[in-house]
């Protein structure tokens, strides 16, 4: 029995398409990139090859400077900035309280051992779960609980047709967690806006393109988090 006929190879791209792609590559290879030229070329579509699309988007969104020599420095700065956002806005009040108590115990135990006294834990007003203080980690946690629940529901509904975002795989769950972190940090940085339903759909294409960048040093799954946060402010 004869085998199934093979599908014919796809036709080569037309000459104008090859020329346009070459112009995009040429524009990106300049030491200082002409953003007006790049914007004009990108308006006709960006080739999805070798991280070109993610690089073009980063430039046109203002995340990367037009001077290529500054890219590495800027990427390191943005990653550090996002790490600081995570430490400040995604802290677990239970873990924070434990850490504070542990540090307090370590500092007090030495003094109490010398004095022959038993250690007594003290909870400050800002560390108490019922505190309404603006700097209270517990008050901040409870204030954003409803928003976190809304973000969680929306993220789980993001592009259900794509295994990248949905499913039981560790990869999909990791991507969902990243989306939730970005959206929650944005909500906390922008108290007047907070989270609006549908922001997950705005973030999703950015995250997908940047997360798919083959160059790990240039991978904007780390970058897009801080850029998205700044983009809508």
UniProtKB/TrEMBL annotation:
<dbReference type="InterPro" id="IPR035969">
    <property type="entry name" value="Rab-GAP_TBC_sf"/>
</dbReference>
<feature type="domain" description="Rab-GAP TBC">
    <location>
        <begin position="47"/>
        <end position="233"/>
    </location>
</feature>
<dbReference type="GO" id="GO:0005096">
    <property type="term" value="F:GTPase activator activity"/>
</dbReference>
<protein>
    <recommendedName>
        <fullName>Rab-GAP TBC domain-containing protein</fullName>
    </recommendedName>
</protein>
<dbReference type="InterPro" id="IPR000195">
    <property type="entry name" value="Rab-GAP-TBC_dom"/>
</dbReference>
<dbReference type="GO" id="GO:0006886">
    <property type="term" value="P:intracellular protein transport"/>
</dbReference>
<dbReference type="Pfam" id="PF00566">
    <property type="entry name" value="RabGAP-TBC"/>
</dbReference>
